[in-house]
Amino acid sequence: MNLRETEEIIKKSFPNALPGDEILDKYFKTMLEEYEIKPDKTLFATSICSDDANFSADFSKILSRPFVMGGLGGLPYTGITGMVAYAHHIPDNGNAFIFYGPHIGFNGNGEIGRMRRPGQSHDTNSCGALMLALDRLITEDHEEVYVPLSSELDFQQTMLERSLMPFKHTIVHSENPKLEITLYTYNVIEKMLKKFISIAKNEFHCEKIILLGGIIINTDPELPDYLDVKNFEVMNVKDIKSVKTHDFSDFVAFKDL
Length: 257
Known about the structure:
By secondary structure, the protein is α/β, with parallel strands linked by helices. It contains seven helices and nine strands, in the order αβαββαββββααααββ.
């Protein structure tokens, strides 16, 4: 498929999707001009899948030193400790910027959940971790019961699957389960991040936290990747509702994460 055909297929599932570079330019310009965010005073963080395909719409091209929260599927596996550490690393008088979301592929035939990776002649799953989770949810729905037990040998995958279990019936019985599991994963990532921010609020010694969330759409190597933005939000730290949880302050090292 050519660029026009690919974009037409992508927009059937993601009507607002744009090439990654366009998204980067648009929102970086917004942060600079409307919110006067200074790049050298902004610490960039990501909660996206660790998949090597996710290089498009990459703000680290402009904002250096990214703090990596995400793993398989894009969930912020670094948890509360990771969010506190991130808050402590923000430059003096600076701001926070977090880019997050899952990814999904569209191959040369327009098939969702598949892509051809650079240097390969065959298609593979994208997101591989989500497509594996989907296969297991489908198996549970139709055959034997599958329960994603915690395992230190594969804890990210089991955590990803456990986070999606409450939505399994809707996902499996939707018109397009591959799309549906991706959308639910986006919601899980966003909910987790906002919860961690609320818990760690008092550790953010900055004015603003900027959130940019969406679905990264992978295509074949010859074509640009796309991004469907779901949320752009500028949070004033003083207005964030603090959520109390277990107290970390008993540990001296907590304040110096």
